[in-house]
Input
Amino acid sequence: MSWDTCAGGPVSGAPHQHTKQPIVTGTSVIGIKYRDGVMLAADTLASYGSMAMFKDVERLYKVSGSTVIGAGGEFSDFQKVQSILENLTGDDRNLDDGYEHTPSEIYHYMRSVMYQRRNKMNPLWNHLLIAGFNKGKSFLGSVDLIGTAYEDDFLATGFGSYLAIPILRKKWHPDMDEGEARALLEDCLRVLFYRDCRALNKIQIAKATEAGTLISPAYTLQTNWDSAIGQSITGLGDDGGW
Output
């Protein structure tokens, strides 16, 4: 069954249609482990094609008291992911023993979900980072829209895979405290704001530690454009040439 946008309702007998490409998208998510836990960071921009349209979008989501998730890609599909995870954790809350899925279990569950949707030729157009802290151990994993999944000490999606990973390779170390980890994530997102035309300098940071999970309110990164001052811009000369 398909949807008739003119009539405002479903059209019986019309072919079922799948999303063929993302429309409203978010860009990079960055995650790192540190001494006391794990952090995720993302900006709050959702672009409509090349237009920076929605500037207060939250792309970090608290799954449970031990797990947070961040997503790049199609925002409506991320809302679907949130709905799937809400159903999963809702089932947990209904159990008498108070069972809660671990970050690793949620990671493997989302790997199966993404792979199953890919096999039906109807993928969820997202690249997810799953972060959590359980039994004194940090967890950080990546799952993309075709179900490719892996774990590491630091990860990035989108343009962050090209621009942030080299910074993380140079500056990350396992004994970072929370302040160092946050500063490193801010440095990476600042570079992405300078270099990625789909990025914004308004960001959120989430953390998972022994005390639980927390997502910060959105705040604005300080930026510096002094390096552009004094540069001469070449234009057309009197003869029409450069």
Observations:
- The CA atoms of residues 161 and 233 lie 31 Å apart.
- The chain has five helices and 16 strands.
- The longest strand covers residues 126-134.
